[in-house]
Amino acid sequence: MSERFDVVPTRIAGLMALQRKPIGDARGFLERLYCEQELRPLLGEVRIQAVNRTRTARRGTVRGLHFQRPPHVEDKVVQCLRGEVLDVAVDLRRGSPTFLRWHAEVLSAENHRTLLVPRGFAHGFQTLCDDCEMLYLHTAAHHPASEGGLDALDPRLAIQWPLQVSERSARDQGHPPLEASFTGIDP
After folding, report:
1. Out of 66, 123, 138, 175, which one is annotated catalytic?
2. 51 falls within a domain
3. Is residue 86, in this structure, part of any structural domain at all?
4. 34 is catalytic
5. Position 38 in a domain
6. Of 29, 88, 145, 179, which is most buried, counting CB atoms within 10 Å of its CB?
7. Under DSSP, is residue 41 helix (H, G, I), strand (E, B) or coil?
8. Cα–Cα distance between 12 and 91 in angstroms, integer?
9. What CA–CA distance (Å, rounded) separates 187 from 184?
10. Model pLDDT for residues 57-94, shown as the tens digit of each residue
11. 28-30 and 50-56 as β-strands: parallel, antiparallel, unpaired?
């Protein structure tokens, strides 16, 4: 794709990993985390509207699964700056052949991997070590009335978290299981 990123397709259409290519020498490295021009073929003409950083203290913690409903759906560009996480995206796109399937990528400071989570997906992660920091770039501003969430432990999703879940927020624990009538969202 470019000299700074290689695109790594996943088994879910539209969901992609990027392999960042740092340039290093004895001093350390320089790494491009985002470039609108280079990522335009993947993200289209959208622009980054918000940048968030999280720090999670304890190994085994699960954050998510979060999404925004129309008309405030968003693409996310997700990276791990410190530590290591299992990053998960769940396809919620109405009519998608991979509806409710999930894909996971290990993201770490060492592997220089990014996950491009398109609109219409729920997103979350589990920390695989203590003291993890994540960086999120969002193509829409947060809209509280449009936020949604899935229970990360919902048996219908059957996400295979690699560690016993040690911690979740009260909000994330409060997401109800998926109802049989849930047909997805329109991205």
Report:
1. 66
2. yes
3. yes
4. no
5. yes
6. 88
7. helix
8. 8
9. 9
10. 999 999 999 999 999 999 999 999 999 999 999 999 99
11. unpaired
The span from the CA of 53 to the CA of 102, in Å, is 23
What CA–CA distance (Å, rounded) separates 185 from 118?
Answer: 12
- pTM of whole model > 0.90? yes
- Count of structural domains, the chain: 1
pLDDT per position as a tens digit, 136-177: 999 999 999 999 999 999 999 999 999 999 999 999 999 989
Q: Which of 72, 103, 112, 136 is catalytic?
A: 136
Q: Which two tokens stand for residue 177?
A: 């299981």
Q: Which domain holds residue 156?
A: 5-21+33-173
Task: Identify the CA nearest to 102 among candidates 125, 83, 72.
Answer: 125
Known catalytic membership, residue 142: no
The CATH number given to whatever domain includes residue 164 is 2.60.120.10
CA–CA separation, 173 and 14 (whole Å):
28
Residue 180 lies in a domain: no
Cβ–Cβ < 8 Å for 115, 80: no
